[in-house]
């Protein structure tokens, strides 16, 4: 009896072709994923890649995927992260701005200048007798508010500063700094050239100039402010 050739239908050929195509697509997809994960690890965690080689097969893939996904989540840019970074950048820029006016002190230095204890320094800040910036785990104090010069200072502070701070109500400490460093072109009358409250105090302000600065402080941040 002769051998009868098994007939293959077009339908069977189609099924084999589809199965082959799917398996190749899966292979290609796995290759793409592997390449992506390795690229992430190579760029962000290269020093730890060698440790993956010691893992058994059942942990190898899951560890690669887990590490790569973790890195991507950490590195991912989101609106919240952008907002937080802008906040940090603004804080750093503000500190750099204060550097133009002497920088900042910690409470230990302020205590020495004013001749008081550190707890009293903290109390002064809470009572708005001095400007204090709550900077994470520590308090910082803008240098510009202090003076040991008898020509413009009084008890370690710029003469006139306590009265001005007392009038800066409902104003953040950052904005209080802005009041002293922003340009003004008038007190009770137009000035010959723009100046700042800080410059006025540093040169040794008169009682009338202090009175005018107190007036400006009282309306700072209101519609009546210049």
Q: Explain this structure to me?
A:
A hairpin with a 2-residue loop joins strand 2 (133-135) and strand 3. This protein is 58% helix and 12% strand. It folds into 2 domains: 11-71; 87-219, no CATH class. It contains 10 helices and 7 strands. Residues 1-8 have low confidence and may be disordered. It has 226 residues and is mainly alpha-helical.
Task: Write a concise keyword list for the protein shown above.
226 residues, mainly alpha, 2 domains, two-stranded antiparallel ribbon, disordered N terminus
- Silhouette: elongated
The ordered string of helix (H) and strand (E) elements is HHHHEHHEEEEHHEEHH
Unreliable parts: 1-8
Count of discrete structural domains:
2
Strands side by side in the biggest sheet: 1-3-2
Task: Report Rg.
Answer: 34 Å
Our estimate of the beta-strand percent is 5-15%
Distance between the termini: 113 Å
- Structural class by sheet pairing and helices: mainly alpha
Number of DSSP strand runs: 7
Average pLDDT over all residues: 83
Q: How many helices in DSSP terms?
A: 10
Largest sheet: 3 strands, antiparallel
Fraction in helix: 55-70%
């Amino acid at each position: 009896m002769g051998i009868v050739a098994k007939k293959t239908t077009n339908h069977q050929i189609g099924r084999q072709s589809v199965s082959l195509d799917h398996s190749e697509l899966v292979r290609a997809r796995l290759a793409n994923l592997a390449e992506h994960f390795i690229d992430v690890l190579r760029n962000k965690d290269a020093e730890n890649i060698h440790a993956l080689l010691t893992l058994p097969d059942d942990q190898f893939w899951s560890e690669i995927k887990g590490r790569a996904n973790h890195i991507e989540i950490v590195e991912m840019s989101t609106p919240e992260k952008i907002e937080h970074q802008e906040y940090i950048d603004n804080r750093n820029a503000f500190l750099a701005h204060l550097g133009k006016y002497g920088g900042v002190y910690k409470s230990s230095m302020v205590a020495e200048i004013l001749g008081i204890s550190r707890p009293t320094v903290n109390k002064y800040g809470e009572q708005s007798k001095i400007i204090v910036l709550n900077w994470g785990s520590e308090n910082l104090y803008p240098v510009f508010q202090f003076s040991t010069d008898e020509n413009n200072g009084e008890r370690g502070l710029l003469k006139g500063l306590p009265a001005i701070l007392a009038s800066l109500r409902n104003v953040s400490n950052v904005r209080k700094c802005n009041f002293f460093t922003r340009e003004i072109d008038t007190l009770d009358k137009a000035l010959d050239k723009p100046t700042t409250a800080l410059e006025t105090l540093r040169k040794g302000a008169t009682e009338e100039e202090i009175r005018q600065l107190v007036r400006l402080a009282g309306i700072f941040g209101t519609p009546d402010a210049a």
